[in-house]
Amino acid sequence: MIKNILIVEDDVVFCKLLTRFLTKNNYTTNDAQSAKQAFELLKEHTFDLAILDYRLPDENGLSILESIKENNKVSKVILITRYGDQEVANKAIDLGADAYVSKPINPDELLEVIKNL
Amino acid sequence: MKLSISSNVHLVEPGDFEPADHWYPRALNSNIHPLVATFLNLSHEQMVARFCRLNPRADYDTVMKLLKYQPKYFRWAGTDLMHVTNNEGLRKLTLIETNSCPSGQKSMPLLDFNFEQGGYRRLIEKTFKPMVDNHPEKGALAVIYDKNPMENVGYAATVAEVFDENVYLAQFKLEDTDPPVEFRDGKMFVRGEKEEWVEIRAAFRYVTQEPWDRLPKNPKTLLLNPIEACLAGGRNKEVASRAYDLFNKEFESKGISIFTPKTFRNVAYHELQSYYEKLGGSMVIKVPDSNAGQGVYTIVNQREMDFALSELAHDPEELFIVQELIHSNYTEGKDPADTWYHLGTIPDNKGRSFAYDLRMMMHATEEGIRPLAIYSRKSGFPLNQPLPEDMNSWEVYGTNLSIKGDDGWTYADERLILFDIRNFGLLGLGIDELIRGFIQSVMAVYAIDQNAIHTFDKKASIV
After folding, report:
1. d(CA B74, CA B90)
2. CA-CA distance, B12 to B160, in Å (whole number)?
3. What is the pLDDT of residues A98-115, one digit of tens each?
């Protein structure tokens, strides 16, 4: 059962609004605006789910996904891809992502994906 | 709201406004001070009549024309003012800065509890909408920003509500190598949900970091404010200072003037030390296009002078603004005619009084320029205690709330002073000061807008 979620996304508006939405739906969240910040959080915490944006200022979401899979700090992973970016989505699944969602993100649809994990 | 429809773009829909997302919790739960509410509801006639009672040399008709003025470029503005006095106890509000992308809504108590979108709605409904309605371009609506997401999400949600259509909310950062906003022949486009470029007819703009590198002059897409407002003084302290001087010259015979600390423009790096000595060992150095407290140095000793010189040495060709410091306390030996002191907050129960500024946000409506939001910020260290040797004087004089690593949702909460029932009294301000501060601010807007007209239209237009 998913309770606590790590959001890795450089867009502060997305982080804030998604955090508020997920909190209202009884999840606990932490957010990171870069891969570096995400790795710092992963040193100290474990998460039931990580929602990773593919495009980050320092590394991309796939490299965080690879690292997560190596150290078992996160149970499930959802990768956010650009609209129509099937290549990245396939790569994410190959690397062990549990799901991917493409932009635009509808919070209710994302919630469904989380519940179905 | 559709989140992240493409990188750094969200689609905001009517009904998305959530007050808790667009006000600081303290402001959301505050009650406006009745005196402030009275001030915000005063008619222009009441304000001008009172101003002229307070300033008997001021010409009523001229002040009224300024308040009724319709700016061409600078239709939304904020000023920072400080409450000062001199050795004779003459109290004034001095203009420190004028800003063409001012923050403030998130710190403003609601004027009327029945209108939960408060100042966001007044600005969009009374200023932005009439402009858009008169602008015959095709395309969608957008809010573009590089700071202050709390207010900008609020503006986007309000635009969506007022126009009853979806609004693109796009982050347009200076350092973004693949930004979701671009201009083609003056027309703005925002990256949409299928990575396509969406044509924009009008945008509310809160782009503050070197905006002249990203926004074109004379755009086809309507911008509030356009870049001309920044270039004419809304984001350049040197140009603004010249505009104020022109204003003061033009209106000298009408008994009004913009009051600023004594200012020296175009000071070369190698001249800074001699100004420090000439001004008696204290001054303020400003980088002309600095913003939000960055690039502003308060100097009260040689150690601070040396620090400023080392910080500013990277570009020896740059020209600076030097201003006389507004002092913390009365000091004998300074020329009383030229020396001003912070009045500071009413002493707290530990006897501490702090320097503070007053942010006045205003907007151009069909009836003229109106006040929109007001709040104050106090400094970190009291005026009336000796400055510890290792402490920078910025702690006494600096009032900006931004804190390092600020993501636009956090701030130095303990230094924000709301204009609510609980806090407003701490400032020692009355309705007369609010009127004076507002009229000072209107004069600054007029001066900068006229400067923009003279600079970019090549034709003069006076009141």
Report:
1. 31
2. 7
3. 999 988 888 888 999 999
For A105, which DSSP code?
A: B
Q: Are B71 and B234 in contact (CB under 8 A)?
A: no
Predicted structure pTM score: 0.90
Interface of B with A in 39-58 (CB under 8 A): none
Cβ distance B171 to B5 under 8 Å?
no
Contact (CB, 8 A) for B143 and B206: yes
Domains of chain A are 4-115 (3.40.50.2300)
State phi, psi for B289 to the nearest 5 degrees.
-100, 25
Separation of alpha carbons A8 and B271, rounded Å: 49
Q: Structure tokens of A27? A: 């999840």
Residues 157-176 of B with CB under 8 A from A: 169, 171
How many whole angstroms separate alpha carbon B207 and alpha carbon B100? 10
Predicted confidence (pLDDT) per residue in B294-333, tens digit? 788 999 989 999 999 998 888 778 889 999 999 887 766 6
Of B3, B194, B408, the CB nearest to A105: B3
User: Could you read off the pLDDT of A33-77 as tens digits, one per residue?
Assistant: 889 999 999 988 999 999 999 888 888 889 899 888 888 888 899
Query: What does the pLDDT read at residue B462?
Result: 46
One DSSP character per residue, B252-271 reads GGGT-----S-EEEEEEGGG
pLDDT number for residue A15: 87
Residue where the block lists tokens 């949600």: B157
In the numeric block, which tokens belong to residue B76? Answer: 């939304």
Of A16, A105, A106, which is closest to B149 when you measure between CB atoms? Answer: A16
B416 to chain A, closest Cα gap in Å? 22
Dist CA B396 CA B356 (whole Å): 9
Of the candidates A56, A84, A109, A104, the residue with the CA atom closest to the CA atom of residue B3 = A104
Alpha carbon distance B228, B86 (integer Å):
36
- First-to-last alpha carbon distance for chain B, in angstroms, is 44
Nearest residue, CB atoms, A83 vs list B10, B18, B194: B194
Q: How far is B360 from chain A (nearest CA, A)?
A: 26
Domain residue extents for chain B:
2-24+107-224, 31-100+241-261+326-457
Task: Pick the closest to residue B161 from B210, B196, B118 (CA basis).
Answer: B118
Among the CATH numbers 3.30.2010, 1.10.287, 3.40.50, 1.10.1740, which is that of B2-24+107-224? 3.40.50
pLDDT tens, position by position, B126-179:
999 999 999 999 999 999 999 899 999 999 999 999 999 999 999 999 988 889
Q: What is the dihedral sign for C-alpha A117, B6, B7, B12? A: negative
